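[[Sequence with tokens]]
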Amino acid sequence: MTETTIYQWLTFLLPPITGLLTWFTSRYVRRTTTLETMQKSIDMIIQKNKELYEEITTLRTENAELKVGQQRISSENEGLRKQLDDLMQENVELKHSMAELKQQLKVKNKAQ
């Protein structure tokens, strides 16, 4: 083969070879960029997940504390209802006694 033939072959083969090399390189870069983007997204999701987990844990603790407080208040409320019912019953009895005393007083005043 002569030097001219080698140059002719190179002129025909070099553009497709460089095109293939460029295509493979750009494909590698695209994949790498895509993988980096995906990894950043995954890292962001993991961080957000950690934040949400901490918030959920805090809210569950607060919820448990609120439930305990609610039970305490409900228990106190029940005690107050019982006291109110007792006082209402006592009030009825006192009204009845007062009515009897008024009646007796009227009878006594009429007798005098």
Notes: The chain has a mean pLDDT of 91. The radius of gyration is 47 Å. The chain has one helix and no strands. The helical segments are 3-111.
